[in-house]
Specification:
This protein is an alpha/beta fold and 253 residues long. The chain is 43% helix and 12% strand. The model has no long low-confidence stretch (mean pLDDT 88). It binds zinc ion.
């Protein structure tokens, strides 16, 4: 469901599920380069660490100040209370548990139904705000294999939301088939096309400095790829992707 760059501009407005991490920031940059009106949404569901919620405000501020063309397209930011998730799920993101794999083959960071709920809430808001496209950074090439991030799930949600609200929604998933190195490269490419001199480097620097991915909420250790503990699965993935992104293209696998 990733749109080619040459796709006709039938859709002009989007709501980006924006958590303040690397992936959703890249999705937001893509939406700002593609759609005329872009709003953002996030959910507060008792995450163990609030740094991600703080990070998203910093990213929004930096995007606005450093990318003037995008600033004109960036509209309202919405933070919805989804605390009900904490009542139905016991998982490592909302409780103080160690990260491990469960017998189901899924990591215990999996919150059943979370993305389905988020997309439903996002669609309800998009309906009210007259926004046509839902943009989300879900990815099948990620390490976790979350079933609610898969392409088939997104296609089914697109159909269910469109039928259930009698409004044609498009779910745009620009990262679905990208690995983390390619996600860094996409950000660089979007920055280059932003109209800002050396915009590619500027966007990569912004993502390194201001986005947050670490599961442990660590903002004290600064690495070449950004802040984080460097040990948790999210940090390892981000670090490896950044390292491969920096390698010359010819030596990339
Ligand atoms: Zn970490």
């Amino acid at each position: 469901m990733t749109l080619p760059a040459s796709a006709p501009r039938i859709h002009t407005s989007a709501l980006v599920l924006f958590s303040g991490g690397q992936d959703s920031t890249t999705c937001l940059a893509q939406a700002l380069s593609r759609y005329e009106r872009v709003e953002t949404i996030a959910f507060d569901y008792g995450q163990r660490h609030r740094v991600e919620l703080d990070a998203r405000l910093n990213v929004l501020r930096e995007l606005q100040s450093r990318f003037p063309r995008w600033a004109g397209r960036l509209g309202e930011d919405h933070l919805l209370d989804a605390a009900v998730l904490g009542q139905v799920s016991e998982c490592a993101l909302t409780r103080d548990m160690a990260f491990e794999m469960e017998s189901s083959g899924l990591p215990n960071t999996f919150v059943p139904g979370r993305n389905l709920l988020f997309l439903t809430l996002a669609a309800a808001l998009a309906y009210r705000r007259g926004l046509q496209v839902l943009v989300t950074g879900v990815c099948e090439t990620d390490f976790s294999g979350y079933p609610d991030c898969r392409d088939d799930t997104m296609k089914a949600m697109q159909l269910a939301l469109s039928l259930g609200m009698d409004r044609r929604f498009l779910i745009d998933t620009p990262l679905m088939w990208l690995d983390k190195a390619e996600t860094w490269a996409l950000a660089h490419s979007l920055g280059e096309q932003s109209g800002v001199p050396r915009g590619g480097d500027a966007l990569v620097e912004l993502i390194v400095e201001h986005t947050h991915t670490c599961y442990l909420g660590d903002r004290t250790h600064r690495h070449a790829w950004g802040y984080g503990c460097g040990q948790c699965p999210a940090c390892v993935l981000r670090a490896r992707g950044h390292e491969r992104f920096l390698q010359p293209r010819t030596s990339r696998a």
